[in-house]
Amino acid sequence: MKILIVGAAGDVGQTIVTELSGRHKIITAGRNGGDVRVDISDRASIDAMYQAIGQVDAVVSATGSVHFAPLAEFTEAQFMLGLGHKVMGQINLVLAGMAHVSDGGSFTLTSGVLDRDPIRMGAGAATANAALGGFVTGAAIEMPRGQRLNVVSPGLLEASQQRYGAWFPGHMPVSSKRVGLAYAKSVEGALTGKVIIVE
Ligand SMILES: NC(=O)c1ccc[n+]([C@@H]2O[C@H](COP(=O)([O-])OP(=O)(O)OC[C@H]3O[C@@H](n4cnc5c(N)ncnc54)[C@H](OP(=O)(O)O)[C@@H]3O)[C@@H](O)[C@H]2O)c1
Question: What's the burial of 149, exposed, middle or buried (CB within 10 Å: 0-12/13-18/19+)?
Answer without folding.
Answer: buried
